[in-house]
Amino acid sequence: MYNKLCCIRTFNENANSVCENDLDIYKTLLWELFICIIVYMRHIKDYAAINVLLTYTYFLETSLFGGVIKQANYTAFQHYSSAIEEHYKQRSDMKNKYTLMGDIICNQREKLPIYTSEAIAEADLFLYQVCNAYELVEDEKSWYGIYWFPTCYIYVQNKQLEWERMKSRRYCKKMQILFGVESIDELKKRIGKCVYDSKMRYPNSWEAAPAILNYIKVDDIGSLN
Predict the structure, then answer these.
(1) In 130-195, which ranges are continuous DSSP H helix?
(2) Taking the mean position of all CA atoms in its chain, how far away is CA 166?
């Protein structure tokens, strides 16, 4: 679906010109869809399925005209819409918001009881927080390395998510499935990579997106029954 929607020839076989904004709406909707899939998987606690989605190697179209497929990881679905954030927002009465994309997905895409504003924002933050724990394939689509910017982190109320519960050895078994490891020691090594990055914030914001290690110390993982 991504490769079809992100190629102008899907819509006009004879197209000889195209710009990024022509297909921006589809990339925005695919970003929303990916986040909402994570919302549902977290809701039903299917950590094995989340692991598959986040460690899978995707082969995605990199040319707006098609025909250039390159390997990518899940962060390829993260999208920043300059059309929304830099053009439409600036001419609207919402120009003072940190993000119009985040506001739309959190406040206009709610479908209760599962797809709440909080659940959507948490899923986006979750995708950022776990990223460094995985050994992801290099994204040949990206010039900026491997990362997921959590557009909606400013809307999250429960920023600690699942992480403080990893003090419990019983809960660690679920997290071992999520991170694809066999032991608590391996889990600690993965979580140890999930460090705070002060650059993961909006301009003029004092608060950056929190990391897993903001809420639990590596030595505390699996320390309780």
Answers:
(1) 169-179, 184-191
(2) 21
